[in-house]
Structures are given as structure tokens and as C-alpha cells.
Amino acid sequence: MKEENIESQPYIDSEVEKILAIIESDELTAFILNYASAHPDCKNALLQRFLPFQKENKVNKNYALEVQECFQSLPFLQQSRRYSRYYDSEDAIDWKDSLRQIEIVLKKAEIFIEQKAFDDAATIALQVIRSIGENYIDEQYYDYLEMDNISFNCEVAGEILLTLVKQPAVKVELKTLILKELQEINKLATYQEYNIYEMDSLIEEVTIEVQTREEALVYLDGLIQERLGEPNLYQLVNRKVEILRLLERTEEVNRTLETYLYLSEIRKQVVDRLVDEKKYNDATSLLDDGIEIARREEHWGTIQQWNEYKLLIYEQTNDSGHIIDICKQMFISKGGDIKYYHKLKEYVSVDEWKSFLSTLMSQTKFSFYGWDGQLNEADIYVEEKDYEKLMGLLLRTTYSKLDALLRYAPHLQDSYSNEILVLITAQISQYAEQNVGRQYYERMAEMLRKIRDLKGGIAVVREIVEGFRVVYKRRPAMMQVLCEF
Length: 485
Prior knowledge:
By secondary structure, this protein is mostly helical. Among the domains are: 261-317, no CATH class; 319-365, no CATH class; 372-485. Helix content is 70%, strand content 0%. The chain is flat.
């Protein structure tokens, strides 16, 4: 009888099969993680099965195809779409499953870098960026969350490629190939017409890393001249400075920094260095120059930033005179910010404090608009325990008056208990009259709870609620919310 060649089948343990059938996937994952971490043989088996290591330039698996398969559930795209803006299909595309698969493949690429399987890592990252560009149709098909996830996957792939080109162990040939592939991918309509990923920035970064340092300097000088006046110019200047430092060209570093001192990010770096070298006078002088430039250009946020830095330096050197001057300026410019009040009280002598504060507040323009009734001027009166002025301020307040009264009433309940409760009663009655709807009634209930906690507040709340039950008896939602009282 002729023997038949029967392909050997792997042995399946029926008992293991039954156990796997009843185990939750999370439990199984946790078990495998712990067991493989403690047993190298198991770990190696997992790697060989799911992440076969590339040896001697032999590709064990087509990872570009694996990335492309992540999009196989998407509708067919005409070849012309890839380099043309318009697509005539009305089918909406669901990216959720595809993006989940892409995230898994990108994690493989990160592991490949650890394994020094650089070719496979590059293949995956490049194909992710290419496939997203080829399959993206129009932002009208996606909600904002999906758009963010698409951009995020591009960013992860880009970071993988940057890691590769910065690795000394990666061959120049692979780095050059990455650059050429990115330049080709950037021709896709998606990256030319839609703002899903900054391909140009990635290509610039890769170009700088692939070139020699001298070539990179020439390239950066060209980019800097092209980008004069753009917000991110300082990033290019920083890259140039980094390369010059690697080349130990200290004089050129200093000239470059001096040339671009008008950029606040560059100025801060120079000041940081001066502070590290304990050249405090030079540092504050440079900050003063920056303040003048910012004032001419009306960049008030930059003025604030430099003054804060000066304050930090003066605190570091314990220069109390300059600390007082800076905090005084900042207190006035920021409408009585309590932060600077505390600093000033720490450094101004007790004997001079009352007079100093009175003059300072007369020079300050306080705002009557605060979140949840908060007022800078009121906060200072609370700190000073000047309840007469606090009460006067609340009487003058018109914006969010009820919120302000409730916020500061606990500080006035001993000295002005009756007066503050009368004001609050009038305001909450006005609030009830002007606002209809459950959300307003629930907020009104929160207010009533705050009033109830004040001295004499329980009786006042009872009186208010009894009145509301008569006046607003035809508002069933209000009556339901008021059942608590």
C-alpha cells in the first residue's frame, strides 16, 4: 500500500484549549506579560512569532503591506484621487478600526528600533504616512476626534523617522532613502492641501540630520532668510546654534545669538546663560532692552514675562529695593493682582505699609469684572481686614453683584450681618424674577445653601423660600427644587 504524504499538524492540547475558551482576554494578556517577562524562552518565542527579527538584510515580513492592509476596509479610491483634490464618492469613511490597527503597527516599529531592525522600523513609519495621505479624502467626513487621531498617528510615525535619522548606528543609505521617500510622499494632495500634518517641517528636520554639519548650516541659513518675521524663526536659529556649538565655533554662536536677540525666545536663552554665570547686572540689562522693544511693539505679554524674570533675579540676589519696584509695577499693571500684594507686604516695612498700600491702591485701576464674583480690590480689603471699605465696594459693585455678595459675605457677617443679608435677599429675588428654567433654579438652590450658612441666614432663607412659593407657585420645577428648604 502506497504511503500518503500527510503534512504534520501542530499538536493541540485539548485541556489548554478549554482553559483558553473561558479566560477573559485581559486576564490572558496580563498572564502572558508576567510570564514572558520572567521567562526568556517564552519572550523569544513571542518575538519570533509576532515580531520576527530581521537578520542579514533579509526582510522576514512585508511590513509595508501590513500597513496597507489596515486600510482594506475603506472604499476603493481612484488612482487619480491621490494627486487630485476632488473625490466623487459619497461614502463616509470610518477610520476608527484602521487607526487602531495603525497604532499597533507603529508600536512594532518602536520595538524594531530597540532591536536595531532599522529598515523595518523605517518601512512601517514611511508607509503609515504614505497610506494616510493616499486614503484621506476630505475633512468633512471626519469628526474632530478622528482628525486628531489621524494627525497623531502621522506625528508618531514622524518621530520614529526622526529617531532613526538621529541614530549614529543607522546607515547613511537608509537615512538618505527616508529623506527621498518623504519628499515623494509630500507630493500627495492630502499633504499639499490639508493641514493634517506638518510634512514640510519633518522634511526640514530630516534634511538637517542627513546632511553634514557644514551642509546643514548652509541649509539653515537659507531657511532663516526665507522665514524672517515668522513666529517659529527661533527654532531654526536654535538649530543653527546647536550645530555651531558641536563644531566649537563659539564666536559664531555669540554673533548668531546677538543678531537674533530681538526674538524673545533667543533673548531668554542668553539671559539664562548670564544668570547661570551669575552675571546678574548683564542679565537685567538685557531684560530691560527686551522690555523697551516689547513696549514699542505693544507686546504686553512679553513685558510681563521679562518683568517676572527680573523679579526672579532680584529674589535670587535678595535685592529688596528692586523687588519692591518690580512688584509695584506689576501690581498696578495687573489691576491689583494679589500675588504682588503678598510680595510687597513681605518686603515693605510694617511702619510704612499702611501709607505705602494706600498710595499704591490709589494708583491702581481695579476691575469690577471678576470670575464668580471675585474682585482683586475686595481680596485686598479681606487681607487687610478693612471690612468698612469692603462693604463700600460691594455696595458700588454692579457686575455679578449677587456672586460678589455671596463670595465676601462670610467676611462681613460679624460686622454687617443685617446689611449684607438685606442686599443678598434683594439680589436673589431679582435673580428669581429674571431667570426661568431648572438650571437656574438649581443654581438658586446653591445660593440659598450659602446664605443658610451665614449668621442669621437660616431665618432669611426660610423667608425667601416662603415668598417664592407664593409668587412662583406656577413654576413646578422651581417648587420641586425648593423642596429641600
